[in-house]
Amino acid sequence: MTDLFNIRRDFSLKTLDEADAVADPMQMFELWFHEALAAEALEPNAMNLATATPDGKPSSRIVLLKQIKPDGFVFFTNYESLKAEQLNVNNYCALNFAWHELERQVRIEGRAEKISPQESDTYFEVRPAKSKLGAWASPQSKVIPDREYLEHLILDFETRFAGKEITRPDNWGGYIVKPHLIEFWQGRKNRLHDRIRYRMMNDGWKIERLAP
Ligand SMILES: Cc1cc2nc3c(=O)[nH]c(=O)nc-3n(C[C@H](O)[C@H](O)[C@H](O)COP(=O)(O)O)c2cc1C
After folding, report:
1. Contacts by residues 54-61 (CB-CB < 8 Å, ≥ 24 positions apart)
2. Which atom of ligand 1 lies at the shortest distance from residue 84's CA?
3. Is residue 13 assigned to a domain?
4. pTM for the full predicted model
5. 185 in a domain, yes or no?
């Protein structure tokens, strides 16, 4: 058996102090995101999205952050996928970014809302043609008989859209996760990590330090 007990690494790259915490966590996120880009973090905009059924059965998967807005985090997906089915009935969700190159994690909790069809169109238009066709062809999260089934669907849509603009299918678009909690985590020596949590209160964001 692989010995995982002895896989460990101490964190010592950076520190996170209350004095570093700007008043608006979305600005703080932008700051950290730019540092992740500068550090050439692998897939810096990949985030874990956790959703749950109304009776509390969770599931999670990676999606890509495609926009940081003043009021939330935008990702795109199939509106008939498992995640969408869950968000339709329980829009509480959580996001997690792990930027190992900086020994950082950002945890977000909030509620997801569909963005407007016009906003989804704006992003869909800049996607490569093959990705656009993929959005049409893939019945995301459904059981399919085999790989060939998908490849035939792609060919069908290629024919259907030959020489035409590939418009956005109605069942594909964006969600914005509007946060009520954002935690910034910085790894420190001997597991005494820094954790700064922002919680949305009636009078704005409250900043607190949490024990590691
Ligand atoms: C790096 C990475 C990026 C991904 N980005 C997206 C994305 O932006 N949107 C999406 O729907 N699925 C994305 N996926 C696939 C999802 O993880 C997942 O398989 C899919 O959305 C179906 O999830 P569901 O059945 O829980 O709805 C990505 C996967 C990886 C590994």
Report:
1. 54/89, 54/90, 59/83, 59/86
2. 27
3. no
4. 0.97
5. yes
**Does 9 reside within a domain?**
no
Residue 189 is part of which domain span?
18-127+170-210
Pocket test for ligand 1, best of 63, 74, 150, 171 (most atoms within 8 A of CB): 63
Q: Are strands 204-210 and 104-114 parallel, antiparallel or unpaired?
A: unpaired
- Percent of the residues in the chain that have a pLDDT greater than 90, as a whole number: 99
Residue 140 lies in a domain: no
User: Where does ligand 1 bind, in terms of residues with CB under 6 Å?
Assistant: 43, 46, 59, 61-64, 75-78, 81-83, 140-141
Measured in Å, residue 186 CA sits from the centre of ligand 1 at: 26
What pLDDT score does 157 carry? 98
pLDDT digits (tens, 9 = 90+) for 78-87: 999 999 999 9
Indicate which residues carry an active-site annotation.
Answer: 191
Overall number of domains in the chain: 1
Q: What is the CA radius of gyration of the chain?
A: 20
Q: Give the distance (Å) from ligand 1 centre to CA of residue 90.
A: 19
**Per-residue model confidence as pLDDT tens digits over 169-193:** 999 999 999 999 999 999 999 999 9
Give the pLDDT confidence of 145-159 residue by residue, as tens digits.
999 999 999 999 999
Dist. CA 1–CA 92, nearest whole Å: 38
Nearest CA to ligand 1 atom 14: 63
Q: What is the CATH number of the domain that holds 177?
A: 2.30.110.10
pLDDT at 46: 98
**Cα(208)–Cα(99) distance, integer angstroms:** 22
